[in-house]
Every structure is written in C-alpha cells, then in structure tokens.
Amino acid sequence: MILEALGSALIGLALAWATARRLPHRLPARTLVLATGVGGALIGAFITHMALGPGSSPATLVGALAVSAALLSLLLRPTRRLHRRQAPA
Known about the structure:
Elements: H1 2-22, H2 30-52, H3 57-75
Helix pairs in contact: 1-2, 1-3, 2-3
C-alpha cells in the first residue's frame, strides 16, 4: 500500500508538472497545479484501492492517473480568444 501511495504521488506530480509546463497560460499558480495533481492522484489511488481491494496495483495506479487528470482539467481556464457569432439583426 505504501508503494502504491508513493507511485500514485509520483504519477500525479509528473502529470501536474507536464500540464503546468505545457499550458502555463491557462492555469493558475504552479504550486496549486502541483498540489492538485498529487492530491488527486492520492485520492484516486485510495478510491480505486478500496473498490478493488489489495493486489491490484496496476489498476490502482490507473485510477490515480484518471482522477488526477480529471481534477487538473477542472483548473483549466478558457483561452482569451472567444469567437462569438453575432446574432442577425
């Protein structure tokens, strides 16, 4: 269980770092992004581990990745360029 938690935290940190590096203009502060990635991965690992039970480490890591990615996607802001269509007069 400790190795799953460590692996999940590393997966969340790597995903958050890659997201913060690729989309810095659409995200809030980097510390918030990194904390959300790690926290989401740990929560995802916990939920997956409780649902599947012990002995399913690869599935637990996939669950950690999925929840971390979902939480990081909630931090994204829309781009500045919004193309709005004008209503006909």
